[in-house]
Structure prediction request, 227 residues.
Amino acid sequence: MHRVALISGANRGIGAAVARRLAAAGWRLALGVRRPAAVAGTDTCTVHRYDALDRDAGARWVAEAVAAHGRIDALINNAGVAPHVGLEDGDESLLDDLFDINVKAPFRVIRAALPHLKASGRGRVINLASLSGKRVLGLNVGYQMSKHAVVALTHAVRRVGWPHGIRATALCPGYVDTDLIAGKHDLTPDELIQPEDLARMVELLLDLPNSASIAELLVNGRYETML
Ligand SMILES: NC(=O)c1ccc[n+]([C@@H]2O[C@H](COP(=O)([O-])OP(=O)(O)OC[C@H]3O[C@@H](n4cnc5c(N)ncnc54)[C@H](OP(=O)(O)O)[C@@H]3O)[C@@H](O)[C@H]2O)c1
Prediction:
């Protein structure tokens, strides 16, 4: 029996690295991306339209994935944005995008996938949160608020899903070497987390048994006290 994983934003960055890793490990995949035509599928990897700003997109993606693969064992909510909204600067209307894409869309996908994850008996949800979901260091409070909410969402999945064998993890990296942070930091290349290393962690999180669950995984490429 092949396990089936859904990954949002799998066309580039962290999501693409996770998709490559899980495909190599034998997972069946249903990728959720904004432009499916731009991503090549295979007989074991289907590609679905998923725009986080479309309220119905999550339920549609889940239904298509079940139709294609028959089951869902893992959901990786990875798609996200990080426009700057500070307390003293930045366009306040961007808060809507931050919460719609980073928080409300994963909430909806989880809702739609829960019955299938329960049926798996060892369902897994990994939400790409951030160290910005654990502490406030930079000045993008909009992003920080959204990622703190993602951590809360993850704990809600644990609360509801635990008796059904569902285990959820908030994956909380610092700066990762992707487009999202290009030009927005002063770290040296060797201080950046590589997407492939996060993908290794995702594979481990999915493989651990129900009796060895990691609620939050904090990952850093530079020294910070306690992180
Ligand atoms: N990079 C970091 O330093 C870092 C650190 C901590 C946490 N994270 C989190 O990790 C996740 C992945 O980030 P990344 O670094 O891989 O970023 P990235 O390279 O910028 O990729 C972002 C992904 O999200 C997708 N996306 C954006 N808006 C979307 C929408 N409305 N609907 C569907 N998909 C959408 C993008 O699709 P398109 O290609 O269509 O735009 C892309 O696939 C995010 O949740 C981010 O907050 C990143």
